[in-house]
Amino acid sequence: MKNEVPVSKIMSTNLVNLNLDDSLYKAEELFKKNQIRHLPVIKGKKLVGILSYTDLLRLSYVDSIDDNLDADNFVYDTLSVKQVMMGKPVFVSTDTSIREVSKILSEREFHALPVVDQHKNLVGIITTTDLIKYYHSLLYEQE
């Protein structure tokens, strides 16, 4: 069955990530520049966390009011990526099936999962968008 295809076949490998010692300023810049919603956080090559754009937005509501207010600066200067990220994130391996990834994302209400190799090195990320594109292609291959 096609759903037993490993996630490595459809995951994104063009990774944008944060290092554990990066600033929240850099995180915001990466989210906006790359138009993404999730940033894996690494130390060396090892996955240590994940930061979502929603996590960052929860810190400050002033972005929607005025880009020139100093509240964001205070928050970004006070907190670190390590304090804001989800530590010990749920992840999958490259051989995890697309079916299992779909189950995890739907049951846990996540929108992205980091993908790691056997040494827990970050090698990809799978998002709900990747899954939708995959299932859409399956539906319309038959036409």
UniProtKB/TrEMBL annotation:
CDD domains: CBS_pair_AcuB_like. Keywords: CBS domain. The keyword Membrane does not apply. InterPro entries: CBS_dom, CBS_dom_sf, Diverse_CBS-Domain. SMART domains: CBS. Residues 11-68, 85-143 form the CBS domain. Pfam families: CBS. Gene3D superfamilies: CBS-domain. This is CBS domain-containing protein. It comes from Zhouia amylolytica AD3.
